[in-house]
Amino acid sequence: MARKMMSSLPGNVPELRVLFLLLLLLLPLRPISGGDGGGHDYHTALHLSILFFEGQRSGRLPPDQRLRWRHDSALHDGSTAGVDLTGGYYDAGDNVKFGFPMAFTTTMLSWSIIDFGRNMGPELKHAIRAVKWATDYLLKATVIPGVVFVQVGDALSDHNCWERPEDMDTLRTAYKIDTSHPGSDVAGETAAALAAASIVFRSRDPQYSRLLLNRAIRVFEFADRHRGAYSSSLYRAVCPFYCDVNGYQDELLWGAAWLHKASRRRIYREYIMRNEVVLHAGDTINEFGWDNKHAGINVLLSKEVLMGKADYFESFKQNADEFICSLLPGISHPQVQYSPGGLIFKAGGSNMQHVTSLSFLLLAYSNYLSHANKVVTCGGKSASPALLKQLAKRQVNYILGDNPLRMSYMVGYGARYPQRIHHRASSLPSVQAHPARIACKAGSRYFLSPNPNPNLLVGAVVGGPNVTDAFPDSRPFFQESEPTTYINAPLVGLLAFFSAHP
């Protein structure tokens, strides 16, 4: 299970190293998998990145399920609480459904479609299905007013076993927040996810879109009225796995920003402006992920400014510009580091979550700047939209194989990729290959085996190499070898754009 950990990185970088990194980032290496013109096959990578979500499905699988080694699982989720909580996604390599990262995954899949869906071609319908698999679950989790079910499964008992989701016999406790036990962080993110998805379905399924938006409004009102961190209410269930380290204030602004975009209601604009200082909009501007939305809020609202529609969000654009500057090689920043091979690196587990999320913002902002014919000024230097795209593309190419190990960190892409990912369903024999149940501890021998995983979880992007570009292809090294939905979700948008603009 990939945990959120705070970054603590060195500050100044020697001048020669800075120049080397800048050259390394801007000069492409020889790829290991050929595509058009000798570059990467972004179309194939996009296809795989979306297919990965089918491997993470919980519940009763549909007839058009393409990863056939997965089967129905967790068909009684929610029954102990008297609700239907079947469906949704397992967040990573375990069998727990954590609502906080699932909601963030949904928001980022939706944003990927909103900004880059036109570049997805035949994969668009699969990306939309991936969003709906999540939103159908989130609607179930929010069906009771004043209640949000935020987790299904006891993480401690689950992590004590190595078993297929199809064989699960661990506790499937349904955890909730309510008016007496608030969770503005997970509720705010859930509201953002439902609002963002309502935009995806606005022209495709207007009735479903209205349902999503109305539910987003209700969930946001609950999040705002009953403020508090869900890890205070549910500490033993969610910590240290998805403990809210950053606070719930950013999720309230994030939810309001997406409701503003989805509904165009003045009330959300006024909420953002009224709460900008109170909710610390300018904090940790270079962070973006399931626990910290600050950079995402600034980039999302900056589009309004750059399009000439909302000067009242000018302070968010200033924050977005500072965020961009903090990522540029050659400009020292205490929270951003690059590996010798050119990969963005932040201390803690599952580094690729930072790589894909930050790269998505680089690309999205570059597009907003391009349409406005603007650049970002960083001290005496300027960063053009083309430079931001190049930086984002360099990160994507690193993931796909342009790195010192010449390894693709996406399973199934390229000639060399991780074979022993930290993922129960992938590492245990499938139901077809081994129909008999594999008990909790009986799976340990597969976990410890040096053999490659028998089931290919194609499209899965693992946590990735360490700061020296070294990668242990080993299940016990979960921080490096475990895939997560929130690594892949931003990558979908990146790959869609580069598949159309190689």
UniProtKB/TrEMBL annotation:
The keyword Translocase does not apply. SUPFAM superfamilies: Six-hairpin glycosidases (SSF48208). Its EC number is 3.2.1.4. Residues 42-495 form the Glycoside hydrolase family domain. InterPro entries: 6-hairpin_glycosidase_sf (IPR008928), 6hp_glycosidase-like_sf (IPR012341), Glyco_hydro_9 (IPR001701), Glyco_hydro_9_Asp/Glu_AS (IPR033126), Glyco_hydro_9_His_AS (IPR018221). Residues 1-34 form the signal peptide. The active site is at H422, D473, E482. It catalyses: Endohydrolysis of (1->4)-beta-D-glucosidic linkages in cellulose, lichenin and cereal beta-D-glucans. Keywords: Carbohydrate metabolism, Cellulose degradation, Glycosidase, Hydrolase, Polysaccharide degradation, Signal. Belongs to the glycosyl hydrolase 9 (cellulase E) family. This is Endoglucanase. It comes from Acer yangbiense. The lineage of its organism: Eukaryota, Viridiplantae, Streptophyta, Embryophyta, Tracheophyta.
